[in-house]
Design a protein that fits this description.
The chain is an alpha/beta fold. It folds into 2 domains: about 5-190, 3-Layer(aba) Sandwich (Rossmann fold), CATH 3.40.50; about 210-365, Rossmann fold (3-Layer(aba) Sandwich). It is about 50% helix and about 15% strand. It contains 18 helices and 12 strands. A 7-stranded mixed sheet has the order 9-8-7-6-10-11-12, with helices on both faces. A 5-stranded mixed sheet has the order 1-2-4-3-5, with helices on both faces. The structure holds NADPH dihydro-nicotinamide-adenine-dinucleotide phosphate (NDP) and (2Z)-2-iminopentanedioic acid. The site of NADPH dihydro-nicotinamide-adenine-dinucleotide phosphate has 24 residues, from α10.
Length: about 450
Amino acid sequence: MDARLEAIRDTVLARNPGEAEFHQAITEVFESLGPVHDRHPEFLEAAILERLCEPERQIIFRVPWTDDAGRVQINRGFRVEFNSALGPYKGGLRFHPSVYLGIVKFLGFEQIFKNALTGMPIGGGKGGSDFDPRGRSDAEVMRFCQSFMTELYRHIGEYTDVPAGDIGVGGREIGYLFGQYKRITNRYESGVLTGKGISWGGSLVRPEATGFGTVIFTQEMLKTRATSFDGQRVVVSGSGNVAINAIAKAQALGATVVACSDSSGYVVDEAGIDIVLLREVKEVERGRLKDYAERRGGASYVEGGSVWDVNATVALPCATQNELDGDAAARLVRNGLLALGEGANMPSTRDAVAVFQEAGVLFGPGKAANAGGVATSALEMQQNASRDSWSFEHTEERLTEIMVGIHHRCASTADEYGDPGNYVLGANIGGFVKVADAMLAQGLI
Ligand code: NDP
Ligand code: 2IT
């Protein structure tokens, strides 16, 4: 890392102790930014990096609620409003027991650059709670969401901060959150949340957008090697919103998706995952992958273990951060991996990224490859602002244009900085320069 940047990085790490994921995200971005500061000394003079690493606002709050047995439960809620240089804070809410400030900050920090890469007018933010929706009834989830929004509502708004979904937050949760916001504020403010239901202000394609976009981005990478998804053998991790829609899109482009996972294990289905059954089990029944394997002839279920043991030509990690380490990366490379697109946020450890890059694997980092979700959220905001709703075809066309544009921006930035094919460099510099320019223009705030 550039010595000037390393000194700033060390100060940031010392100011934010015990937040390993945030440290990792910062280090990874800083490693790309040396050459930008050679060209733009004005960014150093204006302390752009120091300002970028300090969130504009961080909100932490108590979320009290009662479970179905009438017992009082207490969770912690977060919203980190990281950077508003390009637009209102924008980013998802994650409900998962592992959530703490370090995870929310890493996600919010990544979101700044991701959102810049989309070319849409959105700043970066993230939030969530250590609430675990698993095993909770709809009524419990509703009471939790209502309590969460009873504090959050005062901090968000169409022009201020626009949350959406992430792990553990999908259409059901956004519905309960929106209902409570409307009730408290007495405003039908569609643009305050994205990922809404189609009949009440949501956008077609938003549910599919992250998974679809990841595959579209990966397809663009494959094209640079004169190939495509057609005939590839694909392994996907996770079996939630992003994973399911990545599987569907990869299959539509002619790939065979032979494995996917959840936090308990993974399924191998050499005939190709049955997407209709997978949606039924995961989206309708909220079941486990084990249930899928039991109902699908020919599929086998592996309890525990690593889905990255299954050989593939294309890998799409779509579960969570640091789910793919250096050893798993080396196994994938030995087994013939050609390309990897990150559907999740920071699923590859820094060791894993180094292994892929040394081996010449096409590597699409999450802040570029999974930007289709938030980009389509911005399209939802556009539709809300104009009280319009677009067709599936039109919205998917816009998503495709945006993903092809992000690929182009990453690839051409990597070329410009003398490291062709390095999408990590391209994404980090491409996103950073846009935000840094806007921050300079807006003065010291
Ligand atoms: P979901 O809650 O729909 O699905 C999450 C999936 O990942 C589940 O299969 C879950 O398994 C698995 N998973 C979650 N945490 C862990 C863990 N600690 N260890 C192992 N497996 C885990 O979330 P999404 O599909 O929306 O999100 C997946 C990833 O994509 C996240 O990294 C998210 O930040 C990222 N992302 C999401 C976007 C969106 O629009 N939703 C946009 C851009 C990125 P189990 O059910 O067993 O917990
Ligand atoms: O990580 C992400 O980009 C998301 N969870 C989606 C954010 C959004 O505002 O749609």
